[in-house]
Write a structure and sequence with these properties.
This protein is mostly helical and 282 residues long. The protein has 14 helices and no strands. It starts with 11 loop residues before the first helix and ends with a helix.
Length: 282
């Protein structure tokens, strides 16, 4: 027979079986051990409190197996919550350790599930966490939620129907490998369209060279215009602030807005004819 307090090793079934062999504590035993730990920092008393509640952690962790995470990891995180509960437990409050510990056990498991269920975090706000851990059990089928059912769930959980629909969509998705699983998938893998090469030195230098040449070409095309045409093009198209209107320029040059429009059209045509040959040589 296994000695109480011995280290449990081996398979998951062996761990669960060993945890169930630790006896449950009576209220008086629990009070005595908790008092010894709180008043005298008796670590052996804390150990007995933890071992007697390992089956509680196993039971709580079993409720989170639907997220596809290892049962052993869920139990491990729950054990951390149990140890925190024993550390903070006050036996004079008249509450049993099991009632106090279950909240901290669930809190630790919740954090583990949220951090590890998906590579991308799905629930960061309080409302999203509530949805994450309740929506699965409240759905009546594996299909998407209809607007009526989404509204019902939103009312029960005190969130908006839009938040319910968004979380349902997130939960229905799947992680996708960044690289293709095989050669046939590489052309459609996210890495092919998510990669950003704009910051590479060669691309940066090339972009700067193109911008410099474009500015030089534009300046050369503007230099071939007469002063009035250049003024109109710059005022209409190259101003950082609000561009001038045809009427504004008409008043400036003492002509009609229509005449300004005609000059503008001809000036742009001349610039295009100047820029096309330059672009062909680049």
């Amino acid at each position: 027979m296994q000695r109480p307090g011995a280290v449990i090793i081996g398979s998951m079934d062996a761990y669960i079986g060993g945890a169930r062999r630790f006896p449950l504590l009576t209220r008086e035993e629990e009070f005595r051990l908790a008092s010894r730990y709180r008043d005298d920092n008796d670590l052996d008393a804390a150990r007995q409190l933890i071992l007697s509640h390992l089956r509680l952690v196993i039971s709580v962790a079993r409720g989170y197996l639907g997220y596809g995470l290892p049962h052993a990891d869920l139990i491990q995180e729950g054990n951390i919550g149990l140890m925190k509960a024993v550390q903070r437990f006050d036996p004079t409050r008249g509450v049993r350790l099991v009632s106090f510990a279950v909240h901290l056990i669930r809190a630790e498991i919740h954090e583990y599930v949220l951090k590890n269920w998906r590579m991308l975090k799905l629930a960061t706000t309080k409302a999203q966490r509530k949805l994450f851990f309740n929506l699965r059990s409240m759905k009546t089928s594996g299909q998407g939620l209809g607007s009526t059912r989404a509204a019902e769930i939103a009312q029960i959980l005190d969130v908006t129907p839009a938040e319910v629909t968004e979380m349902d969509t997130r939960l229905s998705g799947h992680d996708v490998a960044l690289d293709g699983d095989n050669d046939d998938d590489e052309a459609f893998a996210p890495i092919t369209y998510l990669a950003d090469y704009s910051g590479e030195p060669l691309h940066v230098l090339d972009a700067r060279a193109r911008a410099r040449l474009q500015n030089e070409d534009l300046e050369n095309a503007l230099a071939r215009l007469d002063p009035r045409s250049r003024r109109i093009v710059e005022a209409r198209w190259l101003m950082d602030e609000k561009p001038a209107t045809l009427h504004d320029l008409g008043e400036e040059f003492g002509v009609s807005a229509e005449r300004i429009r005609q000059v503008e059209v001809k000036a742009i045509q001349r610039m295009r004819s100047s820029l096309v040959p330059l672009a062909a040589t680049r």
